[in-house]
Amino acid sequence: MKLQNTAWIFAMLARLSVYRKIYDGRQIVRLYLKYRRRRNEKPYKIRGILRRSGHVHVIRQGGMEVLRLRRPDRRNDRHILYLHGSGYVMQPTFFHRKFFLELGRRYEAEVRMPLYPKAPNAHFAETSEKLIRLYAELLAETEPANIVIAGDSSGGASALALAQSLLGKGMPQPGRLLLISPVLDSSMINPDIPPLEPKDPLQVVSAIREFGKAWAGGQDLTHPGVSPLYGPVQGLADMVLVAGTSEILLPDIRRLQKRIEVEGGQVQLFEYDGMMHDFPLLPIPEADRVLKQIGDVLYVKPVK
User: Fold this and answer.
1) How many H-runs (helices) and E-runs (strands) does the chain carry?
2) Has residue 149 been placed in a domain?
3) 29 within domain boundaries
4) Hey, which of 109, 273, 274, 289 has its CA 20 to 30 A from 66?
5) Is the whole-model pTM more than 0.85?
6) What are the pLDDT digits (tens) for 228-269?
């Protein structure tokens, strides 16, 4: 698949972005984490496209603030619990806010995006408890088959870790899992990763490890709550995976796909040639294409 001009532009901008400059130096990452600690203490405010939509409100569920999108055209049997990414340390960026709205529009679903506790102020165990509570409260509103647990990047890892926690507690699985460019192993020890690092315009191995350490709170980076690649896969809901061939997370995503298939689970991987990390969140033709493919799997019948 030929890389579209718009995708190339976003890849170039990613290499020039302030985030890439932060990720490139371990000492800078640590300074950035100190900055995030201060920022994460401030309350989140609905602004920009969320405010203009007119359909987003802040509710309290699972012991935390949750952004809930209720469009007038939503279907009662479609609920998406969306866990946004950003290295476990940031509140939703513009691209996450836009994707949150797009999920509701495209799939005619009610969407919840929790403002879950972030590192370094909090660690995975605290957030996991709150996400389980949120899911339990959602089960009081609808059937588990009506729920999709979705996440991108670090949020994709949290989405999978949540589903694994549900297994451990004997709680019902959602109807589907949707993981976009998930960070499945924060230790980044897969030997197939280093050759991909020069091709990845955004992600850096050392930065992912540092963010993982902040999220782990003293636990080993291979703890399933931090790196769900090491958690159980048998009994999980049917899963949709999305990845680009220009991201360092691809080897672990392929590894997860193989594990699930070997253990008899249902998984579908949409792998796009030349695409960067989190490409479905970008305003590019490939994003529209893969979101249509995802919709066909999530809801069987074609969606808009």
Assistant:
1) 10, 8
2) yes
3) yes
4) 289
5) yes
6) 999 999 999 999 999 999 999 999 999 999 999 999 999 999
Joined together, the tokens standing for residue 87 give: 């290295």
Over residues 173-186, the pLDDT tens digits come to: 999 999 999 999 99
pLDDT of residue 301: 46
Which of 178, 140, 141 has the alpha carbon at shortest distance from 162?
178
CATH number of the domain that residue 170 is part of = 3.40.50.1820
3-class secondary-structure state, position 205:
helix
Residue type, 137: E
Q: How many domains does the chain have?
A: 1
Residue 13, domain extent: 5-298
> CA 251 → CA 28, 103, 183, 184, 194, distances in Å?
27, 27, 11, 10, 10
Single-letter code of the amino acid located at 268: Q
The C-alpha atoms of residue 14 and residue 44 are separated, in whole angstroms, by 25
Q: Is residue 212 part of a domain?
A: yes
In a domain, 152, yes or no: yes
- Looking at residue 303, its pLDDT comes to 38
